[in-house]
Amino acid sequence: MERQLLTNGRLATLDAPDGAGPVEAGAVALADGRIVWVGTAAAVPAEHADWPRQDLGGRLVTPAPIDCHTHLVFAGNRAQEFERRLQGASYAEIARAGGGILATVSGTRAASEDALLEQALPRLDALIAEGVTTLEVKSGYGLDRETELRMLRTARRLGRERPVRILTTFLGAHACPPDYRGRPDAYLDEICLPTLRDAHAEGLVDAVDGFCEGIAFSTAQIARVFDVAGELGLPVKLHAEQLSHLGGTALAARYRALSADHLEYATEEDARALAAAGTVAVLLPGAFYTLRETQAPPVAAFRAAGVAMALATDCNPGSSPMTSILMAMNMGCTLFGLTPDEALRGVTVNAARALGLADCGRIAAGLRGDLTVWDATTPAELAWRIGFNPLHRRLFGGSEC
Description:
Radius of gyration: 21 Å
Helix content: 25-40%
Shape: globular
Distance between the termini: 19 Å
Number of strands: 16
Largest sheet: 8 strands, mixed
């Protein structure tokens, strides 16, 4: 049995909802990739006292970050669209002119699985370098059967190429491809829903997502996708209320979605619905920043209703070309008004909830040994700095890597 005892750490366990400060002079006992005991060094049980020790030098220890919303697998870039937005074009205008998601679809369809993997690995490595051990990867840049499956297979391969846990989300309802322009229901019938069934049969899907927006799909159309997900026993998530209010958040709550994401145009009523459903609000400040939006998600309403809030990079080639979970934490505080404690919970315990995971996101006995040791003394330092990575050690399943 592989055993170790980490000592002299300041433990931000996040194992209680009250925001209590770190455990001083803390210790964590790990065996076979799992946490078996947590407490102060002075209280280490006798059965762990002679285990191999590692002194952390008083450094901050947190659960390893989780990136619960990414579009990590794609081909090409959209730097030209960035220039167009700087000149005043909106995201919706670019999308309606054939840019946006559809521009990435063209490049991704032309790329082999090996090429997609080669392009995705540097993005993944950037997240791993900031301590991320678990992340979600969506499809949605194929919009045909072969490319959607290729994207999901590539995402699975990422988890074999690197020491990281990958959860895959089918996002066939991301946009309507050009050959189905004006016929979204036909696209769902002929491409999206059959591909979802095929992807599930191949073991490639952990959850199902959709883009509920005027430039994408209506609530009624997303409901059709969610109904098939339910038949297959798959949980759902939803891009909702990013650019307008179409009722996507209420739809997500009705289907008891794991998460509703973006939510700039969500309302107090939406917040109450999310709370009642236990659905996590995933905030994506990278897209808000890149698109230069002005309406922020209703964080105060989420707090008042008791909605769990997560943060993620939303790494994608168009609206959030960001591969820094630490920057997502900083932006969550500076742009959306989260506290540093909320930001840390947003990339740990609440991010785990947004992925339906109960075995990570906290430092507690019985959970995975996914931990990060930081050259820092307080959790606030992680959200405070800009462009600085204080990671000292990353443990994935109890092993340093």
